[in-house]
Write a structure and sequence with these properties.
The longest helix is centred in the middle third of the chain and has 18 residues. By secondary structure, this protein is of the alpha+beta class. The structure holds guanosine-5'-monophosphate (5GP). Guanosine-5'-monophosphate (5GP) binds next to loops.
């Protein structure tokens, strides 16, 4: 069964796609937590960071380089931004297809909620 993100990458369900190449696709989060909230996703289905293999090194690096490019494009590079990948239950992962969150456009506050 393919993930919701695979369906977006394949163009089967709509999304605001801001970047796509042979390795990754980036689109705006449907429920943005900041003025800029973009998800950068490997085109290949990889469930979690735990499932990354040595052969995924190029795609893993591409996620970061595309985040940097999109941050500049969004005009948030100078002020700064946050990159985040959630993994499994304690990480709060909801969609089991690796994705890098690019968040910015306002001060984002402390990294973790205080308990
Ligand atoms: P996670 O909690 O897995 O790190 O983040 C999943 C993210 O995917 C959430 O921020 C959620 O709003 C976003 N999301 C879930 N379904 C869709 C969708 O169908 N389209 C888009 N654009 N974003 C989605």
């Amino acid at each position: 069964m393919s993930t919701i993100f695979s369906k977006i990458i394949a163009g089967e369900i709509p999304a605001d796609i801001v970047y796509q190449d042979e390795l990754v696709t980036a689109f705006r989060d449907i429920n943005p937590q900041a003025p800029t909230h973009i998800l950068i996703v490997p085109n290949k289905e990889i469930a979690t960071v735990n499932d990354l293999a040595a052969e995924d090194e190029q795609v893993a690096g591409r996620l970061l380089l595309v985040a940097k490019k999109l941050a500049a494009q969004e005009g948030i590079a100078e002020d700064g931004y946050r990159l985040m990948i959630n993994c499994n239950q304690h990480g709060g992962q909801e969609v089991f297809h690796v994705h890098l969150h690019l968040l910015g456009g306002r001060p984002l506050g402390p990294m973790l909620m205080r308990r």
